[in-house]
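Posting for a labmate who doesn't have an account.
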Amino acid sequence: MRDYGDRYDHGTEEHRASLTVNRLERRVRNVLPLGFLPYMPRFLLPPSGSSSGYSSSIPLSSRLPFVETLRQECPDGYMPDFWRQGGEEDENEQGTRAGGTYKDFLNHLKEERKVGCVVLCCSDHEDDMEFKRNVLTNEEFVKCLRENDILIWGADIREREGYQVSQTLQATTYPAISFFSLMPVNASSGSSSNSKFTILTTVQGPPSTTTSAPALIQLITNTIVPRTRPFLNRLRRERHALEEARRVRDEQDRILAESERRDRDKILKIRRENEERSRREREEAERQEREHEIKQREKEQRDRFHADMLQWRLYAKQHLLRAEPSVEDVKAKKAIRVQIRLPQGVGSAARNVRVFPLDLDTSRDVYIWAETLLLGAQDDAGKARMPPGFTADYPPRRDEPFLKLFTAYPRKEVSVDAEGWKVVQDAGGSLVMELARGQKFGGDEDDEESEDESD
């Protein structure tokens, strides 16, 4: 900015020539209105082209160089905060904002409920520099705009945007300053529900009188602000109330949606829990049914096996037991007495003694006799038959557990072979019986079944 000021103060020959042309142009414009320029002879028209810095009487440029030109012409001035579309700020040391069309500026004023100031200048006017340096960049004037939150938009009528705005506002003298604001349609009622955008006032003329900084400050302080502030504040409060109501409504909708979501999740959770509980109950019922079926089949198999074993024991008693040797054979040590002690509660209390010849090959006959001891008195009736799948050997079925015999002392198992028969002889024939789990005998079948079910 400093270097530009030096160039501006001590400019080149071309710049001085441009200033001379501008002075001539101002004299012509002071004598004749702008409307007569198209009808003047060509030799009386101001020079055109880049040498004069003048574009045209009817601008064709769409650029808005007003703010940039103001910075260059008033480098030491107190720059106002020109409105910029979107609220962005230029990166300069004075924080000046600029840019955006006139229409966008007015729409922004309506939306934000603020007062706007439109400044139209003509750089060809003889009072232009005085207005820019002493009014537009005056510190007190700029502070007044800022303190009253008045937005400012400016343009030069030599440019297309400024020329179109000047035609819209019917400005005839420059500089021209217009103030805009929303105002109630019926001023007496002051209703904020029906308002329109209004030109409050337009000030035109030289900066020494009507457009001077003190005059504009007094106009803003005594007329513009008292006239607009109450209504605009009411509009802002209503908008704030509407926004707050909308925010509260949105918050309520959010809370309601959240509550509905939680309720929906809770319902889904309960539904899933019920489905899971029903599934578990169904699986448990199916498992119990399968277990019942398995137990039923096992019970039927046990009952069938026990019935077959009972039949086999009866058959063994009638057909498989050999005749006992005589007492003389025992004395002659050709035979041995074998005594078997039954488990507690099994069979009768009578002594279970039988004589077996010593020349037996195995203890098979001892085991067959032991099986017949499990018959009850009511079972020893009728002619027996060999059950299907059973043999006359021992054990009659190799895939089922049977009883076991042990010596009384020292305890030693008696196997169904020659070694087992030798163990019997060494023990003097004194044996103890143990039943494999699930074995039944005589009339104790119901008790055994009840014991299994309780287990």
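Reply:
Got it, the structure tokens are right above this. The longest strand covers residues 195-204.
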